Amino acid sequence: MTDIIKLLPDHVANQIAAGEVVQRPASVVKELLENAIDAEATSIKLIVKDAGKTLIQIIDNGKGMSETDARMSFERHATSKITSADDLFNLNTKGFRGEALASIAAVAHVELKTRIHTNDVGTRIEIEGSKIITQEPCATPTGTSLAVKNLFFNIPARRNFLKSNNVELRHIIDEFQRVALAHPQIVFAMFHNDGEVFQLPAGNLKQRIVGIFGGKTNEKLVPVAEETDIVSIQGFVVKPEFSKKTRGEQFFFVNDRFIKNPYLNHAVSTAFEGLLPDKTRASYFLYLIVDPSTIDINIHPTKTEIKFDDEHSLYAILRSTIKHSLGQFNIAPVLDFDRDANLDTPYAYKDKYVNTPKVEVDRTFNPFDTVPPPKKGASMPTYTKPNVEGWEQLYEGLKTTPSDRTSNVTYESDEVTGDLFKKESGYAFAKAESSTYQLNNKYIISTIKSGMVIIDQHRAHQRVLYEEFLRNITVKESVSQQLLFPLVLDYNSSELALLVQLKEGLENTGFVFGNVANETLEITGIPTSLPESEVPIVIEQLLSDLESEVPDTGFSQTDTLAKSMAKSMAVKAGETLDASSREHLVNSLFACKEPTVSPGNRTTFITMNAEELDRKFK
Q1: How does the average pLDDT of the chain come out, rounded?
Q2: 171 and 44 in one domain?
Q3: Is residue 320 domain-shared with residue 173, that is, in the same domain?
Q4: What is the pLDDT confidence band of residue 424, given thresholds at 50, 70 and 90?
Q5: What CATH number corresponds to the domain at position 268?
Q6: Quick one: pLDDT at residue 344?
Q7: Other C-beta atoms within 10 Å of 164: how many?
Q8: For residue 109, what are the β-bridge partners?
Q9: Any idea of the CA torsion for 233, 239, 240, 243, to the nearest 10 degrees?
Q10: 50 has a pLDDT exceeding 80
């Protein structure tokens, strides 16, 4: 029998490894940015074209590499970060497995230019699919420039599974922001298709947060600081009134490395308990410094999940620290037992006796006397009794007979004016003079020929609005109401770029926009069915729905826009509808093309015939 187990060729093994390390263009950005930071760069530039599918280039002014190191960097498991297994438990660098460059080179065209400061010339290497094309000296500044072109050119299936440019760019921006937030002392710049996305100068942590998320973020931040033997905590939390429905602005950094940890996130949420508006999440930028020997980073290929030795202590410290900061800056209600000296009794009056005030009353005063007696020390006044003759004339014409006095009395009629179905129990429903009823302010009940139909008012209204928005966007015939004063909303650069992309679709639903610049969006007109106070809520919900999956231009984008707006503008469960509103909603629902399901493919109504009701009473 012949042997069937054999070693894989290097290029195949590299492609398999690339499946774990390089999942999308954002993975390449993360690995290359971390390599630049490990090279002690003070200035890093990221250049991206076509959301990383055509080009990803990182230019840094770090230490650079020698000719031998440049060649060795593309070998599997070649690294300068560790020398033994013990180093895995005392890591102070970003990368350590030595797979990044080898995996990237296996699935792309790579061009490397690097030079160390002691050499006059640098090294240039070109690689295509793990195969070295050229290696030659070149003139290049100190540091490293690494360009990754045509990602997944030799794996068409992987390239076809990439999302749209907007989605991939969103992931790249997320990775860029995480690295930039972890290192505010480094200058960062990002360019996409020759347009500047970020230009971040070196500064402190707060300046870096404001530089990424906009100037309005400055007033939203509450500082957090704590120093213990277990952990050092620095950073900021966002005031509860500025919380969002998304998880977008939640950043944990451990030893300058971005991580995701649901357990610690729960500690933050618990600290905000009772302060956040309904269905919103706390936002935070928290930096934890712990002993590297107490954490294990090597448990996930992307190194975004780590394991702590003592998670319970970290949980308690983090929770109490945030609670203390919220109370210290008057964000949360606190009990203050410190005595205010300004409220103390003055020293000169401390031992004085308090006299009860006396009230003097003239006990000789008689209001019925013709001439009231004078007060003490006053001269005798001249007082004349008023003339009260003919007072009986005031009551003339008011004499009535007993029958007249009862002629205007209204007796109770036999007509029923009350409502038998009051909202006194959970099962009662409001009745109106129509064929529809509202049950628990959630369901609309209407009669049909075979029995009755029960409609979920929220889902039904979603379906009605969804088809209306689709029709308006397609036909481009929407009705707007102009605002007396323009509405100005603040968004960060990435959110504003997304709204600009959706501007045409929003205008077709009834929005009218003014100036869009300097991280502000001016709205001069809104759809007629949308109250002005709910405009920020609708746009925030739209950004939330599009945050992770931004569709391509075309019907998919229109569909997502219509679904998001319908979901946020539809009547909610718990809202009372009058008879005309219920009738209109029922008629509009059954006039839709797909009345049976909501835009989210959930049932909008159920029917119950007379036979089913009969069985209930058996």
Answers
A1: 80
A2: yes
A3: no
A4: very low
A5: 3.30.230.10
A6: 59
A7: 17
A8: 128, 149
A9: -90
A10: yes
Residue 586 falls within a domain, yes or no?
yes
CB 510 within 8 A of CB 530: yes
Q: What is the pLDDT of residue 514?
A: 87
Three-state SS for 191?
strand
Locate 462 and state its tokens: 């979603």
Alpha-carbon distance of 618 to 614, in angstroms, equals: 7
Three-state SS string over 125-190 comes to EEEECCEEEEEEEECCCCEEEEEEECCCCCCHHHHHCCCCHHHHHHHHHHHHHHHHHHCCCCEEEE
pLDDT tens-digit profile of 536-552? 888 887 887 776 554 54
Q: State the Cα–Cα distance between residues 251 and 209, nearest whole angstrom.
A: 11
| Alpha-carbon gap, residue 578 to 437, rounded angstroms | 9
pTM: 0.70
Predicted pLDDT of residue 418: 47
Are 28 and 150 within 8 A, CB to CB?
no
Query: Tokens 């970290």 label which residue?
Result: 314
Single residue among 169, 200, 231 that ends a domain in this structure? 200
Phi, psi (rounded to 5 degrees) for 334: -135, 160
* Closest-CA residue to 506 (of 550, 564, 451): 564
**Per-residue pLDDT reduced to its tens digit, 590-617:** 999 999 999 888 999 999 888 888 888 8
Cα–Cα distance, 523 to 532 (Å, whole number): 10
Q: Report pLDDT digits (tens) over 30-41.
A: 989 988 998 889
Angle made by CA atoms 270, 275, 279, in degrees to the nearest 5: 80
Specify the pLDDT at position 430.
Answer: 43
Closest CA to 248 of 488, 11, 546, 485: 546
Two tokens at 588?
């509009």
Cα separation of 597 and 174, whole Å?
Answer: 35
Residues 137 and 278 in one domain: no
The three state secondary structure string of 546-605 is HCCCCCCCCHHHHHHHHHHHHHHHCCCCCCCCCHHHHHHHHHHHCCCCCCCECCCCCECE
d(CA 561, CA 470): 9
Beta-sheet strand order (sheet of 429-431): 429-431, 436-439, 443-448, 451-456, 605-609
Q: Any idea what the CATH number is for the domain that residue 571 is in?
A: 3.30.1370.100
Helix (H) or strand (E) segment spanning residue 270: helix 262-271
Q: What is the DSSP letter of 411?
A: P
Contact 214, 242 (CB under 8 A): no
Cα-Cα-Cα-Cα dihedral of 25, 123, 186, 216, to 10°?
A: -40
DSSP H or E segment with residue 209 = helix 205-213
What is the average pLDDT across 202-224?
A: 89
Helix H or strand E segment including 27? helix 25-38
Token pair 């498991």 is at which residue? 77
Looking at residue 471, its amino acid is R
First-residue to last-residue Cα distance in the chain? 75
Chosen domain end from 328, 356, 374: 328
CB atoms within 10 A of CB 10: 13
Q: How far apart are CA 83 and CA 96, in angstroms?
A: 10
The residues, ordered by sequence, that sit 6+ positions from 374 with a Cβ below 8 Å of its Cβ are 380, 381
- Please give the helix or strand (H or E) that residue 539 lies within, else none: helix 535-546
- Domain holding 246, by residue range, is 205-328
